[in-house]
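User: Quick sanity check before I run a bigger batch. Here is a single chain. Can you write out its predicted 3D structure?
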Amino acid sequence: MILLRRLNGTELGVNADLIERVESTPDTILTLVDGTKYVVAEPAQEVVARIVDFRARILAAAEAFAADERPETPPVPLRLVETAVEAEER
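Assistant: Done. Predicted structure follows.
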């Protein structure tokens, strides 16, 4: 998620993976994959830089996670949890 400012100064968190297009007309308009549009105060170059930074942080975190061969605590085994409806049916 990247944080941007609307034209009125309020902050807006946008999922960077859902941004389809960034336009400057002269306002910066973000178009999401579902067609939702947001007008933001940052110039298009700044929005793109924030997206690149966000993705770089994700890759760096994944690399650090992969490099850690031994987690400090053993993984918890997964198990199915019974819902109330399933319990009543039993």
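The chain has one domain: 2-72.

User: Great, the batch can go ahead then.
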